[in-house]
Design goal:
Blueprint lengths: L3 E9 L3 E10 L2 E12 L4 E9 L3 E11 L2 E11 L3 H34 L8
Antiparallel strand pairs: 1-2, 2-3, 3-4, 4-5, 5-6
Length: 124
């Protein structure tokens, strides 16, 4: 994902991780710390902002097996917390969130396909 400058795992537990992220939106850095909770039974990963430059950043990855394949959905809900700023760069931020989400899904697909074929998955 070209806009992601840094991801650091701060804590790793059996059912969740806490990570620090640094990305760029139109050359402006945005940083945050998030918690990702893994629910293997429901095939779901919920994530939420713990602290950072946004007021709200949360969502979920859901996985559904269908006909020998896995459908992956990524939901994102965010709020910049500054209405005037949101009006100015809201459409750009929405586009960037969509692009980054699509890049994550493409990278996940490449890794899953590599693992399924016995190859070493690419690191992106």
């Amino acid at each position: 994902m070209p806009d992601v400058e840094l991801v650091i795992v701060l804590e790793r537990h059996a059912d969740h991780v806490i990570t620090r992220w640094k990305t760029l939106v139109e050359e402006a850095p945005i940083e945050w710390i998030e918690e990702d909770r893994f629910d293997d039974e429901r095939l779901r990963i919920d994530y939420k902002l713990l602290e950072g430059d946004l007021d709200k950043f949360e969502g979920a990855w859901t996985f559904v097996e269908r006909d020998g394949a896995t459908d992956v959905k990524l939901g994102v809900d965010y709020d910049f917390g500054v209405p005037t700023l949101a009006e100015l760069i809201g459409p750009t931020l929405q586009k960037k969130v969509r692009e980054n989400s699509e890049m994550m899904l493409v990278a996940l697909k490449k890794q899953a396909e590599a693992l399924a074929s016995g190859e070493v998955p690419p690191r992106e």
